[in-house]
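User: What would this chain look like folded?
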Amino acid sequence: MKLLDFASRDIGVDLGTANILVTLKGKGIVSREPSVVAVDITTGEIVKTGKEAKEMLGRTPENIKAIRPMRDGAIADFTATGLMIKNMIKKVCKTYNTGKPRLVVGVPSGITEVEERAVEETFFQCGAREVNLIDEPMASAIGAGLNVLEPNGKMIVDIGGGTAEVAVISLGGIVASTSIKVAGNTLDEAIANYLKRALGLVISLETAENLKIDLGCAEKLVTELTKDIRGRDLDSGLPKNVTITSTQIANAMRKPVSEIVEAIANTLSNTPPELVADIMENGIYLAGGGALIRSLDNLIAQKIGVQTYTAETPLDCVAIGTGKILEDIEKYKPVFIERKSRRK
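Assistant: Here's the prediction, encoded as structure tokens.
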């Protein structure tokens, strides 16, 4: 028996490097889980996925492997990704009695045709009757409320976990784009490396991520924020308590943030003049978790010279976009990724 043999209800999926979000037509976002899977390497069976698997990172015994199968905007482990998707979709289908749906899946714009086929086949094995893939920047722009089908240039900057993707969109297509492997995970690593170098403090990437969320800023804040953390002293190897400031975190993130700004500038330099004029008028829109970095919109506006806006719910833009597409799938057909070998 297939997983989805019940009443049909169409599904949208944001297949992100850091998180997977599932949207149900007419119901909105129904699942939000980290893109992590824990597998028993002896039997090949899933132990945990999502939040429960993330809690196991770095804490598993020899026979269990907890990994992030999506890295830098691409599928690093096909088998683990397939198992993770199946388990998450199974949970949604069991909860909402979903059967034989059409799917709209937001995928990183850098994935290969082989990866596209693997993603499609995984969802078909879950019982889907139709799978439509869409580039995440396109889905993100739709989720941010931009009209991507009109002949008017729109720029979206989607800063996810593994990649920052900059795209100029017009008439349902991506006219110019830049994808760099500098995003949320890079910022976490930059924070951890900075504290190790500047303070002799060793912290986990999870602690670095929490510092990014609580103190992260692209420029020095008028009112400085602080957070007390515990790490390991590099010299003595003993636990150490330290108070970290938002200024320190801004310094730590300066280089990766400047690379994201440079990617925006490079994309504009490869954009037709008519569309650049549109962007000057419409502004630049930020989405993804990186859009939540304090004062990033102001920094981009200063450096690029274009008004910059943060989407209303930046973390959910891709998922919201797939949901909007499901409401009128015929209207949005031009935005789907085309491939000659696409399964009918």
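The chain has three domains: 11-136+318-335, 140-182+257-315, 184-253. If you want, I can go into more detail on any region.
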